Amino acid sequence: MNKEKQAKKVSLAGILIAIAVVGSLFSFPILGSRSAPIQHLVNVLAVILLGPGYAFGIAFGASLLRNLLGWGTLLAFPGSMFGALLAGLFYRYSKQVSLAFVGEVLGTSIFGGLAAYLVAGWMGITDIALTAYIVPFFLSTIVGSILAVTLYRALDKRGIIQDLQ
User: Fold this and answer.
1) N or C: which end of the chain has fewer CB within 10 A?
2) What is the pLDDT of residues 48-72, one digit of tens each?
3) How far is Cα 75 from Cα 114, in angstroms, rounded to an integer?
């Protein structure tokens, strides 16, 4: 990959991290977790525009910054990274936006929700069920993923997606 293309990808990744971090200010509590749907919007768009590796890195970077700023908890890591990874894999092998959506929802709600249980235990939260984070993560990711697909379609209709890719 040439240096100019790489620089554009890294710049777009930085912008998406910033959107995810600032977007996390628009979060809401659900059953002990802070749901940030903008992170899931960013995950799906990152997968489509940059690929699974970048999407995973963006999810990690945004979670790290949210924690460093005191705007998130350690649950942000499994709550964002599993969805980005699964969405990326689904999209890479299908090239279908709808499967990126499905990967984000399944990765975040099921795998992220189960991993969050382990993280919560590490944080000293032990009085919760194994499946405690699946529902709140599902609600957050479904909202963010719907927003992502809606935004993607609007941008694609105007030819902006092609320009970004």
Assistant:
1) N
2) 999 999 999 999 999 999 999 998 8
3) 11
Q: How far apart are CA 80 and CA 85, in angstroms?
A: 9
Read off the tokens for 77.
Answer: 């890591």
Taking a C-beta distance cutoff of 8 angstroms, is the pair 43, 55 a contact?
Answer: yes
Residue 27 identity (one-letter amino acid): S
Q: Are strands 28-30 and 33-35 parallel, antiparallel or unpaired?
A: antiparallel
Q: How far apart are CA 31 and CA 14, in angstroms?
A: 31
- May I ask the CATH architecture of the domain 3-164? Orthogonal Bundle (1.10)
Q: Token digits for 117?
A: 């249980």
Task: Please answer whether residues 31 and 137 qualify as being in contact, where contact means their C-beta atoms are separated by less than 8 angstroms.
Answer: no
Strand partners, 29: 34
- Strand segments, DSSP code E, in the chain are 28-30, 33-35
pLDDT in tens, 8-21: 999 999 999 999 99
The token pair at 155 is: 């941008």
